[in-house]
Phosphate transporter ATP-binding protein (Loigolactobacillus bifermentans DSM 20003), 268 residues
Amino acid sequence: MKNYDTTQTALQQFKDPAQVAISTEALHVYYGQHEQIKGIDLQFPKQQITAIIGASGSGKSTYLRALNRMNDEIPTAKVTGKILYHGLDMNQKQIDVYQMRRQIGMVFQRPNPFAKSIRENITFALKRYGLKNRDALAQRVETSLQQAGLWEQVKDQLDKSALALSGGQQQRLCIARALAVQPEILLLDEPASALDPVSTRIVEDTLNELKQAYTIIIVTHNMQQAARISDSTAFFYNGQVLEYAPTKQVFTRPQIQATNDPNYSYEV
Ligand SMILES: Nc1ncnc2c1ncn2[C@@H]1O[C@H](COP(=O)(O)OP(=O)(O)OP(=O)(O)O)[C@@H](O)[C@H]1O
Ligand SMILES: [Mg+2]
């Protein structure tokens, strides 16, 4: 995208640290020698939905995974820079990643339910975090499945294997699983890409309700979806952020509108 007009670009900043749920400073991600994320500074406001958009391969998933240290699981990946959360840099060796992920939950691009029952997918982490009360667990199962728009379809078969669900249902189960531990921040990597339009709307409605209590960062390919649900949008290009602003403002930019056109090439 050689002709991207940068004269009007803005990287939104929040002066009051109390408004910011999580931020990165000079965040780089390398796969081996290759620099994939090239120094990203972003602040994500509390109780809002921020969309991350950009072409395939621009680094959206890589960046999102960095926020809760999921790149630790990739042997060739190295992450440098700061991930600031409650005044602490999460990108330090001594951070208890397991505890941190309780606060910063994630739903991946491809559904990845455990090979367990629907119920156990929800209760597994809760039990490990010490919730033992049967009624409380049952309540959490119902509430989180309702929030993900799956309850009505599975309420009579909670002991069935999660792997017997359809792809779209599995993804909603993964959303329910992430919500069940009540994280402060929810990272969603194209959560609706495997969903039909009805399920997509249910999930979008849920996210809109959840933002009263949660901070949500969602990667999406779907520009209409970003426009419908997000307050702010960050536009990624080649491992950098070209623009970060209120969604309405970002979507008036002709270059970004063009990225919604399937015939559009980023390298023209
Ligand atoms: N585990 C990995 N090892 C090496 N390279 C990787 C790995 N994961 C991603 N990459 C590379 O990093 C680049 C960015 O990938 P990433 O998955 O972050 O892009 P994306 O913006 O999420 O794309 P998409 O929209 O297709 O999901 C790609 O060139 C990809 O090949
Ligand atoms: Mg991706």
